[in-house]
UniProtKB/TrEMBL annotation:
This is Glyoxylate/succinic semialdehyde reductase 2, chloroplastic. Pfam families: NAD_binding_11, NAD_binding_2. The lineage of its organism: Eukaryota, Viridiplantae, Streptophyta, Embryophyta, Tracheophyta. It comes from Nepenthes gracilis (Slender pitcher plant). One of its GO terms (molecular function) is NADP binding. PANTHER family: CYTOKINE-LIKE NUCLEAR FACTOR N-PAC, OXIDOREDUCTASE GLYR1-RELATED. Residues 46-204 form the 6-phosphogluconate dehydrogenase NADP-binding domain. Catalyzes the NADPH-dependent reduction of glyoxylate to glycolate as well as succinic semialdehyde (SSA) to gamma-hydroxybutyrate in vitro. May function in redox homeostasis and play a role in oxidative stress tolerance by detoxifying glyoxylate and SSA generated in glycolate metabolism and GABA metabolism, respectively. The active site is at residue 213. Residues 207-326 form the 3-hydroxyisobutyrate dehydrogenase-like NAD-binding domain. Belongs to the HIBADH-related family. NP60 subfamily. It catalyses: glycolate + NADP(+) = glyoxylate + NADPH + H(+); 4-hydroxybutanoate + NADP(+) = succinate semialdehyde + NADPH + H(+).
């Protein structure tokens, strides 16, 4: 992974994968009902960095629950609707972190996550003892450990908390948090996680949350690729793909993803809930993780190639279900 950072102190070697040390605790901590009263246990100021497809609804739910929220985004206009709901705005991550008790970050990729945390006027510059930084971005293990090291060097606490779920679960406060890092910070922000999500897992040391998220998204991306193949094969042999979706949904391999995405895929519509470019990025990171522990992942590797083909055909910003279009292109060129 080649990375160019604006920071003068983030090491250039961060793109190399290291063998993660796993110490997983699989205990699930169930969330309570999402009501405004859940903020009673957290009365501090909350920062939120990155208000895109996922970050916006997450920050919005915090504001609607009565939290004191300060936001930042590279494109300031994306913050304006949140400001109209009562959020404060600061001009850089450093200012947000300095003015808040805990700061969440939801960035698109490892490069952005490092730059926002560690770069010039990054969040680490505004951190100090008693503050906390929670990175909910999907990044690789090495990136998460790097960010953790810079945050903790300030005396602050760090928690990685990537989420399982896309746009609609984020809007509905139904995300699943995969957390690891400082347990004291986890305990402190439980009321906030309960506002934004339906469940949360504490997985121990930093890196375990990132690894779990990559494994989950590796499986999801591979499933969507296989589902796409089945949809096109059913149509080509004269079957109705809409009926295929019903059959799958009612059987042992049924998954909400198939019944939710399938009907739109039949119509060649791909409303973006999880951009295809992010799914391919997560597959790439998962393959790097597998390589670091010498684990063979041939199915995920094949799926990754398909998503790369889809990107080459201009589908990066479509929903990841648009990967089916890459198969259509192959079918036409091969006929």
């Amino acid at each position: 992974m080649s990375v160019t950072l604006s920071s003068t102190f983030c090491p250039k070697s961060f793109g190399h994968f290291t063998r993660p040390m796993f110490s997983l605790s699989t205990k699930q901590f169930s969330s309570d009902s999402i009501t405004a009263s859940t903020t009673d246990d957290f009365s501090g100021c909350v920062g939120f960095l990155g208000v895109g497809i996922m970050g916006y609804p997450m920050a919005q739910n915090l504001i609607k629950a009565g939290c004191d929220v300060t936001v930042w985004n590279r494109t300031k206009s994306k913050c304006d609707p949140l400001i109209s709901l009562g959020a404060k705005y600061r001009s850089c991550p450093e200012e947000v972190a300095a003015s808040c008790d805990v700061t969440f970050a939801m960035l698109a990729d490892p490069e952005s996550a490092v730059d926002v945390a560690c770069g010039k006027h990054g969040a680490a510059s505004g951190m100090s003892p008693s503050k906390g930084y929670i990175d909910v971005s999907t990044v690789d293990v090495t990136t998460s450990k790097l960010i953790s090291a810079h945050i903790k060097a300030t005396g602050a606490l760090f928690l990685e908390a990537p989420v399982s779920g896309s746009k609609k679960p984020a809007e509905d406060g139904q995300l699943i948090f995969l957390t690891a890092g400082d347990r004291a910070l986890f305990d402190k922000v439980v009321p906030l996680l309960d506002i934004m999500g339906k469940s949360k897992f504490y997985l121990g040391d930093v890196g375990n949350g990132a690894a779990m998220k990559l494994v989950v998204n590796m499986i999801m991306g591979s499933m969507m690729a296989s589902f796409s193949e089945g949809m096109l094969l059913s149509e080509k042999v004269g079957l109705d793909p809409s009926v295929l979706i019903e059959v799958i949904s009612g059987g042992a391999i049924g998954a909400p993803m198939f019944s939710t995405k399938g009907p739109s895929m039949v119509k060649s519509l791909y409303p973006t809930a999880f951009p295809l470019k992010h799914q391919q990025k997560d597959l790439r990171l998962a393959l790097g993780l597998a390589e670091s522990v010498s684990q063979s992942t041939p199915i995920a590797a094949a799926a990754n190639e398909l998503y790369k083909v889809a990107k080459s055909h201009g589908l990066s910003d479509e929903d990841f279900s648009a990967v089916i279009e890459a198969l259509k292109v192959r079918s036409v060129s091969g006929s």
